[in-house]
Amino acid sequence: MIVSESTIHDALNQALVHLNNKDNRNAYFDLYDGSLITHGLPPDIEPNKAGLKTFYVGLWQAFPDLNVIYDDVLINNNKAAIRFTMNGTHKGKFLGIPPSNKLFRVQGMSLLAFREAKCIERWELIDILAMIEQLSPRQQISALMNNIFEFAEVKANKELKEKINRLFHMRHT
After folding, report:
1. pLDDT at 61
2. Quick one: how far is CA 98 from the chain centroid?
3. Residue 162: predicted pLDDT
4. How open is the CA angle 67-31-107, to the nearest 5 degrees?
5. Which of 143, 15, 120, 24 has the alpha carbon at shortest distance from 68?
6. Cα-Cα-Cα-Cα dihedral sign, residues 61, 62, 67, 69
7. CA distances from 85 to 73, 91, 141 (A)
8. pLDDT, tens digit, for every residue of 93-112?
9. Which pLDDT score, from 0 to 100, does residue 173 have?
10. pLDDT bucket at 22, cuts 50 / 70 / 90
11. Residue 148's CB: how many other CB atoms inside 10 A?
12. pLDDT: is 129 or 44 the higher one?
């Protein structure tokens, strides 16, 4: 059964309101069917509705002011493609990075498949590397580079040391 474009559009708009409502974010998960299958979340997250909740709760703890904007929404038959922008302030540990109080802004894309007004499958791409680069203090990157240089194999191999040095300076200068 094909879901109407207006039904999907309304469900997505309602979900976005809840996603950005710091007082009732759990209502965001009403968009998803209990049989949800997810793709593209970190590998330690279960690929289901409970896993999606775990991911978002961690995101909200790390970024209490998280805000999501839909830049584009395309709906065709039972699927919706969404290009979005996320931003917030890093107030809690995220991906092993301690709170930095830095602002971040990244883009991502989701593809959602619907049955009736509920999402049953979700594919996700978020530019996590850009997020990490915005949050990680430059000192942590320098410390990592210095720790790598302490390995005996690196100390003994001048060419390898030069390659690592160029790699870090290319990414972070």
Report:
1. 96
2. 17
3. 74
4. 35
5. 15
6. negative
7. 12, 19, 26
8. 887 788 989 999 999 999 99
9. 46
10. very high
11. 16
12. 44
Q: Which of 40, 41, 107 is nearest to 70 (CA)?
A: 107
Distance CA 74, CA 78 (A): 11
CA pair distance 41, 88, nearest whole angstrom: 19
Q: Which residue has the tokens 């929404």?
A: 73
Cβ atoms of 51 and 43 within 8 Å: the answer is no
Which residue type sits at 63? F
Q: Tell me if 67 sits within 8 A of 47, measured CB to CB.
A: no
- 140 pLDDT above the threshold of 60: no
Provide the residue type at 73 as one letter: V
Q: Is residue 27 classed as helix, strand or coil in its secondary structure? A: helix
Mean pLDDT of 64-92: 96
Amino acid at site 139 = Q
The answer on pLDDT for 149 being more than 60 is no
The residue extents of the domains of the chain are 5-127, 137-173
CB 135 within 8 A of CB 102: yes
Residue 158 has what pLDDT? Answer: 72
Name the token pair of 20: 């950005």
Q: Does domain 5-127 have CATH number 3.30.450.40?
A: no
